[in-house]
Specification:
The complex is a heterodimer of chains A (113) and B (108). With 113 residues, chain A is mainly beta. In chain A, the strands form two sheets. In chain A, strands 2, 4, 5, 6, 9, 10 and 11 form a seven-stranded mixed sheet that branches. Chain A has a four-stranded antiparallel sheet with strand order 1-3-8-7, with no helix packed on it. Chain A has no helices and eleven strands. In chain B, strands 1-3-8-7-6 form a five-stranded antiparallel sheet, with no helix packed on it. Chain B is mainly beta. Chain B has no helices and ten strands. Chain B has strands spanning 5-7, 10-14, 19-24, 32-37, 44-49, 55-58, 61-65, 71-76, 85-91, 102-107. In chain B, a hairpin with a 6-residue loop joins β4 and β5. The chains are: A mainly beta (113), B mainly beta (108). The A-B interface holds A 2, 4, 33, 35, 42-43, 45, 48, 56, 58, 90, 92, 98-107, 109 and B 30-31, 33, 35, 40-45, 48, 88, 92-101.
């Protein structure tokens, strides 16, 4: 157990639907990062939050959004889902900024059918 | 975007062999991290290197950061099947970029 909790572990949904992925960071960590991993693209950075505020944005689609709540847990919302959104979605956390090592959760496997 | 290129992309070896994988960039990094990922799991941090020329050892794994802080290598001595996994490098930068990884298979 890494200390980073992601739910659900698996999610199967239809095209056009909306889903919410949840992440609880390791105790004491203020930063949360979301990554998408597919076979051909590797780990793609989506977005980072630090203590409730958006800190950095990567290749996140407009159909995707995220937020970090006062208790530091984070949610990634994916809407108007397409087949190509099928991937592993990872959350990671760290104590501080971007140069430190991350602790990853075990991911949410999203399958869009 | 600071791209990180990892090589080789795939490596399949026999137990007991030595191997080296590489992580290269055209940009300078303040630090660099190596992770190992097993199928269906999140990456696990192995090491962070910070100083140019730095060498860190973790049991049979030796990590080196290039003098110019643009590249790094990971050397595994006497590989074991438990070393099988995807090895990823990441630069400590605002771009939060990972390399695509080296998929290592160690056959018994």
């Amino acid at each position: 157990d890494s200390g980073v909790t992601q739910t659900p572990k698996h999610l199967i949904t239809a095209t056009g639907q909306r889903v919410t992925l949840r992440c609880s960071p390791r105790s004491g960590d203020l930063s949360v990062y979301w990554y998408q991993q597919s076979l051909d693209q590797g780990l793609q950075f989506l977005i980072q939050y630090y203590n409730g505020e958006e800190r950095a944005k990567g290749n996140i689609l407009e159909r995707f959004s995220a937020q970090q709540f006062p208790d530091l847990h984070s949610e990634l919302n994916l809407s108007s889902l397409e087949l190509g959104d099928s991937a592993l979605y990872f959350c990671a956390s760290s104590v501080g900024g971007q140069g430190v090592g991350y602790t990853f959760g075990s991911g949410t496997r999203l399958t869009v059918v | 975007t600071q791209l990180l290129e990892q090589s080789p992309q795939f490596l399949s070896i026999q137990e007991g062999e030595n191997l080296t994988v590489y992580c290269n960039s055209s940009s300078v990094f303040s630090s660099l991290q190596w992770y190992r990922q097993e199928p269906g799991e999140g990456p696990v941090l192995l090491v962070t290197v910070v100083t140019g020329g730095e060498v860190k050892k973790l049991k049979r794994l030796t990590f080196q950061f290039g003098d110019a802080r643009k590249d790094s290598s990971l050397h595994i001595t006497a590989a074991q099947p438990g070393d099988t996994g995807l090895y990823l490098c990441k630069g400590g930068s605002e771009k939060l970029v990972f390399g695509k990884g080296t998929k290592l298979t160690v056959n018994p």
